[in-house]
Every structure is written in C-alpha cells, then in structure tokens.
Amino acid sequence: MGALDRVQEDLARGEPWNARKRLGAVLEREPASQAALDLLAFACLAMDDPAGAGAAWFLTDRDESDPVVRDALAAFAASSDRSVVLARRLPMNAPSRAYPPRARERLALLESRLRAAGDDWEPPGEVHYVAQDGVDVEAFDEWTEPTVRDRSGVKLVAAVLVLAMLGGVTLATLLTVLF
Q1: Please, which residues have CB within 8 angstroms of residue 99's CB and are 6 or more apart in sequence?
Q2: Of 20, 19, 21, 1, whose CA–CA distance to 10 is shortest?
Q3: What's the pLDDT tens digit per position in 46-93?
Q4: Which of 13, 40, 103, 106 places its Cα 20 to 30 Å from the Cα of 66?
Q5: Contacts of 56 (CB under 8 A, 6+ apart)
Q6: CB contact at 8 A, 25 and 7
Q7: Do 96 and 80 form a contact (C-beta atoms < 8 A)?
C-alpha cells in the first residue's frame, strides 16, 4: 500500500490531520505531485481550512469552473492582501516548470503582482541566468543533472586525490621523524 492510499484511508476515517502530515512527507519526495496536492486540498477542506485547500489547488491543473475549487482559491486569495504572503503560503517545493500549465499561469500572475508591489519572491529551485553577449541563455534550460553513473568518475578522482594527500602527509611526517 502506497502513501497516497494511506492518505485516502486517513481521510475516510475522518483523520485529515494524519492525511496532511503524510502528504507533507509525500510532497518532500515528489514536490509537484498533482495527486498529493489534490488530496492535500481535500484534507484542508476537511479541517475547515479553505485557504489551505486553495493554496494546494493553486499548484494544480484544477479548473476554477468547479465551485469548490473556485471558492477555495478565492479563500486563499482573500487570506492576505499581500501577494508575498500568499506566495510564501504555497506548498511549493519545486521550480515553476514542474507544475502543470494552469498552475504556471497562476504563478506567473502572482509573480507579476509581487513585482508590481515591489516585493521579492522566487519559487524554490528557480534558476535565472543573466544574459551575456555570446552566451546562449536558453541552452541552460535544457541542462540535466548528471546521473549517479556520471558522478562515479568524479567520486573516483576525489578518492584518489584524498589518498594522495594522505600519503603525502604520511611521507612528510616520516621524513621529519627520520631527519
């Protein structure tokens, strides 16, 4: 049984606080999980926290034509008159590009409101590259992290360097003692 199955059981038993706690752990591992964010919204609603539900649904592809979603998003928006406070309340642990299109649109609107208010906020994991002459800034969007296999060579080189340094220290100590 997976974590999301346990969350659904928590909700069915009327224990939304347990569901919310489990979902926090799920969202640490899978920050943009749409299923987890959706269940988080339902857990918040069960705990009489429509603003929390709106914050979770803000990061999903849920449509505002659903009255429950619309009311939760409105409650979230009304929970503070400062956009920076709203941004900090989002259960967001991934870069904007990890979320679906509708969520990215909401985030872009929120960021424009933040800039208009003169506030600073950057979504977690966002990377901005300064454009320079001769540098193709767009090429950085295609960057991928090296895989574990790619890093094994780096680890081997680091291990050899550490051993060489230790050997050098040992040799220097030995020569000092002898002479």
Answers
A1: 32, 59, 60, 107
A2: 19
A3: 999 999 999 999 999 999 999 999 999 999 999 999 999 999 999 998
A4: 13
A5: 37, 38, 40, 41, 44, 91
A6: no
A7: no
CA angle 115, 118, 124 (to 5 degrees): 55
pLDDT in tens, 116-167: 988 887 777 665 555 555 555 555 555 555 555 555 566 667 667 666 677 7
Q: Which residues of 87-111 are buried (b: 16+ CB within 10 A; e: fewer)?
A: bebbbbbbebebbeebbeebbeebb
The span from the CA of 6 to the CA of 12, in Å, is 10
Q: Using alpha carbons, list the distances in angstroms from residue 26 to 4, 20, 95, 101.
A: 8, 10, 17, 22
The kind and range of the H/E element at 172 are: helix 148-178
Question: Would you say how long the chain is, in residues?
Answer: 179
How far from the centroid of its chain's Cα atoms is residue 75's Cα? 23
Longest dimension (CA), the chain: 86
Number of Cβ atoms within 10 Å of the Cβ of 125? 13
